[in-house]
Amino acid sequence: MSDPDDAPAPPENSTEHDPTGPSDPDPAPAELPHGWVRIGERRWWSTWVGATTFFVTFSALQGVNFVAGIAGATVRWDLALLLGIAVTVGIFAMITLIRNALSPQPWVDLDSGQLRAGTRRPIPLAQVDRAVLTTAPVGTGGRVVVLRLTAKEARVEFILRDRQDATLDPTSTAVLAEALRRTSVAMPTSIHDPSGRFARYNFPGHIGRDDAVALVEHPPAAGEPLPAAW
What we know:
- With 230 residues, the chain is α+β, with helices and mostly antiparallel strands.
- The protein has one domain (36-217).
- The chain contains 5 helices and 8 strands.
- It has helices at residues 53-74, 77-102, 170-181, 199-202, 209-217, and strands at 36-38, 106-109, 114-117, 123-124, 130-138, 142-151, 154-161, 206-207.
- The strands form 2 sheets. It has a 4-stranded antiparallel β-sheet with strand order 1-2-3-4, covered by helices on one side. Strands 7-6-5-8 form a 4-stranded antiparallel β-sheet.
- A hairpin with a 5-residue loop joins β3 and β4.
- It is globular and about 65 Å long.
């Protein structure tokens, strides 16, 4: 019987997976897909992904105030409560429909170099010239990250990190990053600042193409730094 101490040591650069170690992130696709690719998945409630605790609390207080006003006029709390709920649901539904219509599901076709939102007319990636970053703190230490790309008469939003701290899947990430590299995104300038030195102050929230690509590939979580231009 051989002595266990005489067994050969593993090579120093061994890539053998350690089952006790942390799991590796999902790898990016080896080849980018062809045709129209859905970037992420927008559901009907996605429009409320950036709703903050302050907004929810403020809305609840307004609802209570509305119910109290009706109750004072009718002296019937049951009727006031039902009417208040109906009005609140109606307003919530109307805002949801409007925002979903403004920010439908984004799609990218790298073969034709086009981007579209929902069923709207596609636009060439080269016409996309602005990128705007929006962030909002949510819950206890969470952060929502939304990237908005704009062109003339076109706007598409991408949720890079949602309320559950989930990010885009590897395929969506790779396709969107490559699409951004083919755009004309740049920091805006003005006649008073043609060099763009103060663009971050004149155009808050805007970021350049390299920063946009970096955000897509590694959406910053709460506590992580945002692009310097933001």
